[in-house]
Amino acid sequence: MKFDRMRLVPALAITALLCSATTAAQPAPAAPIMQPGAPGTPSREITAEQSLELGRSHYTPADARFMQHMIVHHGQAVEMGALIEARTTNHGVRLLGQRIALSQAAEIDMMRTWLSRRGEPNGMPEHGGHHMAAAGSMPSTTPLMPGMLSPAQMTELAAAEGRQFDQFFLTGMIEHHQGAIGMVEALLAEPGGGEDPEISEFLNAIIADQSTEILRMRTMLAEIG
Amino acid sequence: MNYLNCTASIAALALGLTACSQPANEPTETTDTAATATIEYAPAPSREGLTAGFRDAGTAIWNMELLHEVPTPAGFNDPEAMWAPAVEMALHTAMEAGEEVARPPSPISFANTDIAFSGNRIVLGNWHGFNVFEAEGDAAPELILSVVCPGGQGDVSIRGNLVFRSVEDNRGRLGCSGVAIEGEVSAERFRGVQIFDISDVSAPRQVAAVQTCRGSHTHTLVPHPSDPNVLYIYNSATSGVRPAEELDICSDGEPDENPDTALYSIDIIRVALDAPEQAAIIERPRLFADSETGEIAGLSAGGAIAGQEREASTTDQCHDITVYPEAGLAAGACSGNGILIDIQDPEHPVRISETSDPNMVYWHAAIFNNDASKIVFTDEWGGGIAARCQSGDPEHWGANIVADITADGLETRGFFKIPGEQTAVENCVAHNGGLVPVPGRDIMLQGWYSGGVSMIDFTDSDNPVEIAFFDRGPVDADELYLAGNWAAYWYNGRVYAPEIVRGLDIFRLLPSAHLSANEIAAAEAIQFDESNPQTQQRYVWPEEAVVVQAYLDQLVRAGRVAPAMAAQLRTAIDGGEASAMLTSNLAAARTAASGRDIERFQAISDWLQRAG
Known about the structure:
The complex is a heterodimer of chains A (225) and B (612). Chain A is 65% helix and 2% strand. Chain A is mainly α and 225 residues long. Chain A has a two-stranded antiparallel sheet. Chain B contains nine helices and 30 strands. Chains A and B meet through helix 1, strand 1, helix 2, helix 4 and helix 7 of A and helix 3, helix 4, strand 6 and strand 10 of B. Strand 1 (33-35) of chain A pairs parallel with strand 6 of chain B.
C-alpha cells in the first residue's frame, strides 16, 4: 500500500478540532473584508467564503513530476556524500559534503511528504530506475537527469581517493547542482508551473542553497589546484 | 484563560524534568550577583516534549508572559488549506475511484508573515493580503480591516495611511483577482511592491503597483534625509527574472554575457507621499560589484582569495536589507554575503564592506545594535520549511552570526542558535527579529518559526546568550505542517510575534536574573509613533531615574559595584542627592572601568550631577 501512512484516526481528530476552532462555517467577520481592484480603482467587499475561494491555488501535474524527479536527483547527492567519510581527509570537503547530505536528505523527506499527502506517487513512473537495474553489466554512461553523474561516473568516483576524490566530488557536485537549478528553470517555464506557493518557496530555497554551494565548491576546487 | 493554565502545568512539568539548562557560555556581564540573589528565578525549562495541537499545543515559556493569542481572521483561515494534507488523503480515495476531484489548495496560501506598526495599529502581512488591528493599552487587539490580494509572501510596511506590500509569487495579479492566467506572459500578472491607501478603512484602495523584474520578496522603507514628503523603498527580490515580453526592463543571464541583467541588483523605488500613485523604480544599483574592477558579479562567498580569479558570484540578490538612517548605514543580508552599505545618499547606496562564513548558507536578515557598532545576521538554512533545530543539527548552521563593524569593515564573531530541542515535525531556523531598547546592552528578539520566540543578549559579540523564550508544540504530532513565529519585535513595551497559522502572539517581558524590572521599565520608556522593523530608529532614553537604575543593575549583576555602594547609589539616584564620598567613589570606579561599564558609570554620574 502506497498510502499506509494515511492515518485516518488523526485525520478524524483534526476534523473534530476544526469544528471547534472554526465553528462549522466561517464566522461573520469582525471587520470588512475588502478585495482591492487594480491601482486607482475601488475595492469591493467580499465574504469570508469568497476570500478563501480566491486563495485556493492548485498545483499542476508538472509540479508533481518535478518533485518526483528531484527526489531521485537529490538521492544521488546523498549517495555521493556517503562516500566522503572513507575517501578524503580534506576538512572543507568533509564539512561541505556533510551539509549537502543533511540538507538534501531533509528535502527528500519534505518532497516525499508533499507527494504522499497529495496522493501522488513517490517514485518516478516514466523512468522507473531502469538505468540501475542491469546489475553485472557495464555501468551506463548516460546520466538519468540533467547534472546527475552517470552510473559510470559514480563508479569512478567511488574508486577515487584523496585529492583525486576531492576533485571528482567537487566537479561532479557542481554539475549536479547546476542540473537541479536547470530543473527549476524548466518547471517555471511550464504553464502554471511553480505557482503553488509551497512549491514556489521550495524552488527559491533550491536556487539559493545550491547556487551558494556551487560558488563555494568552485572556490574549493581552485584551492585544490 | 485555560490556555494559561495549560502553560503553567507544562512549564511545571518541564521544570520537574530538567534540573537546569542554563547556557554554558554565559558572558561575565550577565553573571548573577547580589542584586538578584534575594529573588529565586526559575531556570530555563526544557523545550522538549511539548504536546502537539492547533489551539491547544503545549508551551514552554521563560521570562515572558503570553498576554494574547489573536487568531488569524476569518477569510484568511482556511481549514481546508491548513489541513490540506489530511483533506487530500480523503480526496485520494475519491480520485482513485475515478471521480473528478478538484486539486486541493496549498497550506501556505494563507500564511501570516511579517508585521508593521503605526500608532495603535498593527498591520499583519499574509500570503493572502493583510489584516489591520487596533490595540488600546493591554486589551486584545481588534480587527478593523482585512484586505485580500493573493500572492506571497506579503511582507508589509506602513507610513501613515499607506501600506506597502511585497508580492513575489507567480500568482500575483494586478487587480488582486487570483484568477488563472494562460501562458508564461501576461499583462495581468503582478510581481513587485503594492501601495494601498487605508485612510478610509471602509474603502481601502490600491494606489500603486510597482512591477519589478524579480518580484518583491521583502522591502524596506528608507526616509529621505531631509524631505518628509519623499520615501524610498529598497526592494529585495529573490526569484527568477521575468521575461522581457512581460516587463520590458527585464533581462536575464550572467553579467559577462548580459551587462543589463536584472540579477545582481536591488530596486530603489521613489515614492512622493502626496502622489504615491507615481511611485516608480529610479535606480537598480550594482551593490555587489567589485570595488576595484567594477565587475558586476563582484562578491564571492569565499571572499577575496589572493592570486585567484573571481568566479561568477551567487550573491546576485539581497534577501532583506535593514536600514539605520540615523547612522547613514544599511545592512544587507544578500544570499552569499552579509554586506554593510553607506546610505547617506539613499538614491546611491555604496557598499562599504562584505563578509562571508562557511557556516552561513543563506544570509537572510540583519539587525543593527543601537550604536551601530555591530550587526546580527541570520542564516535561513533550509528556507524556513525544514526542521533544522533538532538535536543532530549543527549549532552553527541555520543560526545567527554577530559581525562587529570595525575600521577594517565587518568582522564576524560568535554564533547563536536555540537549543536543538525541536522535533522533526517543527519547521525551524533563525528568522526575523529586532532590537529591544534596553540601555547599556545589546538585546534582540527573534522568531524561529516552530522554534518559537527567543530573546538574546549579544552585548558580548563572541558569546550571544538566550535570556528569555517562548516555544509552542507542533501543530500535529506526526506530520510537519508549516507553522510557527515568523518574527518577534518589540513595539512600545510589548512583544509582537506573528504566527504562520495561529495568528499573532503578544507578550510582555518578566524580570529575571538576566533582565531587571528597571531594565524592562527603561525599555518601555521608549515610545515610537511608527515602527517598521527593517527601518531601525535610534533609541534615545529619557532622563529618568529608572534608566539610571537600569545601568546600576547591570553594574551590580556584573559584580562591578559592591552591594553596600549599590544601596547608597540607589538611594542617591532616587533622591537626587549624593554625598561627596559617594561621588568620589563613583568617579574612581568610572576611571577604573572598561568597555560598556564606562557608559554605565557615566550615566549614573551625569544623573547625580544634574540632580545635584
